Amino acid sequence: MLLHPLEGNTVKITRTSQVAMLALLGSLSLAACGSDNNTTTTTPAGTSSASSSGSTSAGDCLSGTLNAEGSSAQKNAIDEAIATYGEKCSGATINYNPTGSGAGIKQFIAGQVDFAGSDSALKTTEKDGKVEADDAAKTCGSPAWNIPMVVGPIAIAYNVKGVESLVLTPSVAAKIFSGAITTWNDPAIAVINPGTTLPASAIKVFFRSDESGTTENFTKYLKGAAAADWTADPAKKWTGKGEGKEKSAGVAEGVKSTDGGITYVEWSYARDNKLAVAKVDNGAGAVELSGDAVGKAVAAATQDGSGNDLRLKLDYATQAAGAYPILLVTYEIVCSKGSDATKQANIKSFLTHFSSAEVQAGLEEIGYAPLPSEVQAKVATAIAAIS
Prior knowledge:
The chain has twelve helices and 16 strands. It starts with 9 loop residues before the first strand and ends with a helix. The protein has helices at about 75-90, 100-110, 130-140, 170-180, 185-190, 215-225, 245-255, 265-270, 290-300, 340-355, 355-365, 375-385; strands at about 10-15, 40, 65-70, 95, 115-120, 145-160, 165-170, 205-210, 245, 260-265, 275, 280, 285, 300-305, 310-315, 325-335. It is α/β, with parallel strands linked by helices and about 375 residues long.
């Protein structure tokens, strides 16, 4: 997502931008674990695009280097947070490798990174003989917490000549992505788009060929809101129809260069590639994708973890007025307690900055939605409890 969507790249940033920093909650402590992806991108000083205010004493800055890995969906958001943090803390080095959620969790459990970014919380049920949450706790020597940090709207982005506005219901979206609807003028699409001239051309679906948290969350939406039309279980690996492209950048480029193309992709990639985005009607009227509309959906989520483990259970079938229901939440996965006090304090310092109201508000400029205030308050409490 964001202004410069470069996926699969190691990001190393030490200083940045024309952005004044916000007041951090104090000096804190945190834990180590997780990593994943290659190609190096460097964001130089003066390149951040969001803005924040306030000031922080030098004592709140991390000392040394943090290494993290995982979700490519949050790449642009964490780049921005690293950039604004670097403006305040010129000696800090934070490396983020956007190799994908699954790879980030694996690296965290292997003890190769200090924290991981994942578009799905650690699994608490067994898969392939393993339970992610249990394995992470063994690595940490304490429970690992899922801390929601980045709200990434998932756009249904399309490129259909002459069609500037498009409404989709969960059922119609499921039929398009499963291959049951194959032409743009199909009656099921036409009936929910009265007055729109739809061509008889073929629908060309593009999907993520790599294992992806975005894929998992999009299929959670299809399954949760249109179970009769999407029967496959949600998964990081695509089970529908279409042509596979690697990473978010790949599917966005596929649609951009193909008349009749459609995909699911993070909002920032749709914006960066100037793709049209469908409105979604879950039953309470068509809702345009916006930060406010996504925030309403996140605010309606329930906490699925206990204490400071802030796993969220999203209601993909929500009919809350004005709520945009297709989204993913990227969690920063951290050790709740750690043996390296300095490392824990560094993680805590950076995440305090990342979760602040100022930084979160600035993320909307680059295609994300800020954490709702109710969730943000819980996040601040959890980060403060890291030790």
